[in-house]
Amino acid sequence: MHYSYSSWSGQMPDFDSNSKTKGALEVLKWAYHTYPNDIVYACSFGVEGIVLIDLISKVTKQGEIVFLDTGLHFDETYELIEKVKVRYPFITIKLKKPLQSVSEQADSHGDELWKRDPTKCCNLRKIMPLHEELDPKSAWISGLRREQSPLRQKTNFLNKDEKFEAIKVCPLIHWTWKDVWRYVHENNLDYNPLHDKGYPSIGCSVCTERVLSGSDTRSGRWANQKKTECGLHFDSAPKD
Question: Where's the active site on this chain (predicted)?
Fold first, then answer.
């Protein structure tokens, strides 16, 4: 059976969600066998990303990662990327920049576009660059978990991605926040120190705030905006 965007039937292989990695390792093995040179992991280098990179390293020594380098990320995120490069020298990490620098965007669209029109800013600095990276690929990997938000609860291991016209592979859909951190600590993985300072979900520094204990893990993204997603996976839904 072919598993491409154009021939997608909705039928999926049977992955064991009760395995030690709740299906994640099995999904990755299948994905790299099915799309050996035709798949990329779009990683934001949050803690889920660190888990996926380690799992990918157990499956292939030729993994390809793209990081959407908006030019607005925290210093801690860039520092973590350098640590990951050292730990996994066989994995290719590409920092994909938008067409315009932050200053060039300000000249074209006005200063601090993320405050006035965050959806347009995300489109320019994240969605359009990812389109460029995914256009030649048949599949891409994402760290989405069902527990993260209501919009993500229906995510499957394999998804027909209408936006990027590719198959989106989501190995961690059954992992909980505790599962993620258990894996990180058991394997002594480096992670962004901002996670220890109240940032469960980390994006651009200008659009990410600390989260109160017990709040939705993504509530610090685009705080005080009617926006919950950058648009890579879903269109934003109004916050409660």
Answer: 230 (nucleophile)
Dihedral angle computed from the Cα positions of residues 111, 117, 120 and 126, in that order, rounded to the nearest 10 degrees: 70
Residue 170 assigned as binding residue? no
pTM over 0.85: yes
pLDDT tier, 236 (very low <50, low <70, confident <90, very high otherwise) = very low
pLDDT tens for each residue of 167-199: 999 999 999 999 999 999 999 999 999 999 999
Q: In what order do the strands lie in the sheet with 92-96?
A: 92-96, 64-68, 39-42, 139-141, 166-169, 158-161
pLDDT digits (tens, 9 = 90+) for 61-113: 989 999 999 999 999 999 999 999 999 999 999 999 999 999 999 999 999 99
Cβ atoms of 227 and 118 closer than 8 Å: yes
Distance (Å, whole) CA 132 – CA 137: 10
Calpha distance 151→221 (Å, rounded)? 14
Q: Judge whether 43 is annotated as a binding position.
A: no
Tokens 């120190």 locate to 193
Range 18-27 contact pairs with CB under 8 angstroms and sequence separation of 24 or more: 21/55, 21/171, 22/172, 22/174, 22/175, 22/179, 23/157, 23/171, 23/173, 23/174, 24/52, 24/55, 24/171, 24/172, 24/175, 25/55, 25/58, 25/59, 25/171, 27/157, 27/158, 27/169, 27/170, 27/171
Helix H or strand E encompassing 66: strand 64-68
Which residues are catalytic, by number? Answer: 230
